[in-house]
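User: quick one, fold this
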Amino acid sequence: MQITRTFDFLYHQNEACPQKESFGSKTKDGWKFFSSVEMLQMSRELACGLIELGIQQGDRVGMIAYKNLPEWVILDMALAQLGVVSVPVYPTISSREYAYIFGESEISYCFVGEGDLYGKVEAIRDTVGSIKDIYTFNHQEGRKHWMDLFSNGSMSKLDQIKETIQPDDVATIIYTSGTTGNPKGVMLTHNNICTNVLTIIPDIPIKPGHTTLSFLPMCHVFERVVSYAYIYVGAKVYFTGTDNLGGEEGDLKNVKPYFFTAVPRLLEKVYDKLYAKGLSLPLPLKALFFWALRLTDDFEFDVKHTGFGAFKRKIADKLIYKKWREALGGNVQGIIVGS
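Assistant:
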């Protein structure tokens, strides 16, 4: 099928490479995954509920969570099918910034994750007159839960609306950090996003069912674009956090991802730990460690070494590089780095 709108990615996965485990996050009972069928069906049922709530094409809806969630993706897809503009916001900004962003974008509803997020939005409702209600992704006593909206009574209406959504319609407004003044909203169309996703897919070395880790915030366009690419190729996405990555019990070692995204500072920290470990080794092993490290100075991805050069790197790989890969789970085929 032709991909021209962001929600097309989810329909494509269900048609071309449906997964029993598509998106998952860790709960107190372990990892919980949603299948491709569940992701699509839940997005449609939520969209129907939003129709019945009175949300219309062009309305703006806020989205906030401290960690990435399959529920976040489901909401994103529901809004996109209705032509509703999502306004994802970083969770730790100040109340003043919340008020400014939600006031300028004129959001009508807001969906929030756990923690203090509900209280932050509730505190500015009088300031931002457009906010009609707040829904939570997790159950919170006395507060409206997002699944209260789920319905299957307007499926035909949803399909009619979905077909009217155009590639040049605005899909989302993403706000800058505001370090040089008030945050500025960047309006991105379905075509803006889809073009980027379809451009990077040939360079992502993963196949249907390959495991990926997602820990960069989905409110940033970088991780969000990559998440659409994961949907397209049929990857199995583990949502986690940076605090859960390293160590023997960390998600890198346990999930053994084929692929993930990162920011430069995270990989610098990984490098610093490896370097410090090399310095602590006894002399013969230390010399071997830094000899192997120096061999990477002229690394080129598409260069094939031969002769003595290939022999040296084979030894370094067996004794040193293999252990470095194991620290990242042992299966990593690629990492996209952006900032």
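User: anything notable?
Assistant: The chain has twelve helices and twelve strands.
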